[in-house]
């Protein structure tokens, strides 16, 4: 049963329409409570783990405070990473509210952001550094901002953004609603500008441990890579995240796996935005099933449910361990986490010493290739390209059936499409010198 919400915009979609647009049958318990609390309270702190639906929990009640008659920014949402900011933007767009939303983040073309801000959105989403830059240069008028949302406060604290965010908040004089989310409980001495006597909703235990199976994988220093290879082969052709502590380890391990004919992509903070976007797109659309990553991928990424997690490096503390495991066994789904341990190694306190060991076969069978390949198209939203335009070209000139097309994602100046692997070699020659909306565009397999 949905709680009532009265939109100031009488043409705004109802909750049921929004959920239908998102292909969600109903709100979960945490979202129901958040909807009620945010509607009634001035300051709300929502504590719930990754994957529990926090984004919708704060976006849905936000609609109550947006006025379609106003032409300035009414809500500011800050997130610690580009990926999380983009994910929030995508969810808001998918809700079909009719309100303009823009996302600003480091690595994005600042001229595009300047142009977008010249006609202010109702909702502005961004990372702290880029929003601070726009404020400093007078591109954002804060006079109309009534609602402030800070997502993943604990991650912001970990990354050293809290002081910068505090300075941003102090520049907004007209706030009447403050919402803060965190994946972990706040410290007892928690302080943040304006958050006096907040209503705290703690759903920290929403992910039941019964959905998560954790197993130890014994190895030696010399056999570590071989053990990982055998484990991946046993898991087979299923999406998995392999966590390492350092970027250098990620790159080295990825290279070694490629030598073993295990195709993979890497994800870490040292990559440029384009590389990170391509990695996530290929993972989302099923073109790539193995992602080797740092803890950057442990939270705030728009990727589907992951059934398998591998701790190649032991996490540095229990909080990191929890966040890594939080990428699987989300909500009601099942998941398995494997922790690779060196023989006779002293295990950290946050690991259960009685966890079972996984047995690995002596002979390994290399997983079959994924069923999809990602096609890159050098045109996007700014060239007025839509998903329908892309699908039309591929089915008409490319002679593909609808079933041969997977996920289509259109970015500012590029588009990516999952193509049936068995059709890609026949498709490429047919697309030579192709045009979309009378524009000749480059098309190739995404690398």
Structural overview:
The structure is a single chain. The chain is α/β, with parallel strands linked by helices. The protein has 3 domains: 188 residues, P-loop containing nucleotide triphosphate hydrolases (Rossmann fold, 3-Layer(aba) Sandwich); 134 residues, P-loop containing nucleotide triphosphate hydrolases (Rossmann fold), CATH 3.40.50; 74 residues, Alpha-Beta Plaits. 30% of the residues lie in helices and 19% in strands. It contains 14 helices and 19 strands. The strands form 4 sheets. Strands 3-4-2-5-6-1-7 form a 7-stranded parallel β-sheet, sandwiched between helices. Strand 15 and strand 16 form a beta hairpin. Helix 6 packs parallel to helix 8. The N terminus is likely disordered.
Read across the widest sheet, the strand sequence of neighbours is 3-4-2-5-6-1-7
Strand residue percentage: 15-25%
* Share in helix: 25-40%
Q: State the CATH superfamily name of the largest domain.
A: P-loop containing nucleotide triphosphate hydrolases
Estimate the mean pLDDT confidence.
Answer: 89
Known CATH architecture of the largest domain? 3-Layer(aba) Sandwich
The CATH topology of the largest domain comes to Rossmann fold
Low-confidence stretches: 1-10
Gap between N and C termini, in Å? 46 Å
Q: What's the CATH class of the largest domain, please?
A: Alpha Beta
Overall tally of domains: 3
């Amino acid at each position: 049963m949905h709680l009532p919400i009265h939109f100031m915009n009488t043409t705004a979609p109802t909750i049921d329409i929004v959920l239908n647009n998102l292909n969600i049958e109903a709100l979960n318990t945490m979202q129901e409570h958040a909807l009620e609390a945010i509607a009634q309270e001035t300051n709300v702190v929502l504590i719930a783990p990754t994957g529990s639906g926090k984004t919708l929990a704060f976006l849905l009640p936000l609609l109550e405070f947006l006025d379609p008659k106003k032409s300035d920014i009414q809500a500011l949402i800050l997130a610690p990473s580009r990926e999380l900011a983009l994910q929030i933007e995508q969810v808001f767009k998918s809700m079909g509210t009719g309100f303009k939303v823009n996302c600003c983040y480091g690595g994005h073309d600042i001229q595009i952001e300047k142009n977008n801000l010249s006609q202010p959105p109702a909702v502005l989403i961004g990372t702290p550094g880029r929003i601070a830059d726009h404020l400093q240069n007078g591109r954002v008028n804060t006079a109309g901002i009534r609602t402030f949302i800070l997502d993943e406060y604990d991650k912001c604290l970990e990354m050293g953004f809290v002081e910068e965010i505090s300075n941003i908040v102090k520049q907004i004089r007209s706030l009447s609603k403050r919402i803060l989310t965190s994946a972990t409980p706040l410290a007892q001495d928690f302080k943040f500008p304006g958050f006096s006597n907040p209503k705290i909703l703690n759903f920290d235990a929403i992910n039941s441990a019964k959905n998560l199976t954790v197993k130890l994988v014994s190895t030696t220093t010399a056999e570590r890579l071989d053990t990982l290879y055998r484990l991946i082969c046993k898991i087979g052709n299923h999406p998995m995240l392999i966590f390492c502590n350092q970027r250098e380890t990620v790159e080295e391990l990825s290279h070694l796996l490629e030598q073993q004919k295990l195709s993979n992509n890497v994800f870490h903070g040292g990559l440029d935005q384009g590389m990170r976007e391509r990695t996530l797109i290929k993972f989302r659309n099923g073109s790539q099933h193995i992602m080797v990553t740092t803890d950057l991928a442990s939270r705030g990424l728009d990727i589907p449910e992951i059934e398998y997690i591998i701790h190649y490096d032991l996490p540095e503390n229990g909080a990191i361990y929890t966040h890594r495991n939080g990428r699987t066994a989300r909500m009601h789904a099942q998941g398995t986490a494997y922790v690779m341990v060196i023989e006779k190694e002293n295990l950290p306190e946050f690991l259960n010493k009685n966890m079972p060991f996984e047995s690995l076969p002596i002979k390994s069978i290399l997983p079959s290739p994924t069923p999809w390949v990602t096609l890159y198209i050098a045109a996007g939203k700014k060239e007025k390209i839509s998903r329908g335009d892309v699908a039309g070209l591929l089915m008409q000139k490319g002679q593909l059936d609808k079933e041969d097309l997977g996920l289509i994602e259109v970015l500012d100046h590029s588009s990516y499409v999952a193509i049936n692997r068995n059709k890609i070699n026949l498709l490429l020659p047919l697309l030579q010198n192709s045009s979309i909306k009378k524009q000749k565009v480059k098309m190739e397999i995404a690398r």
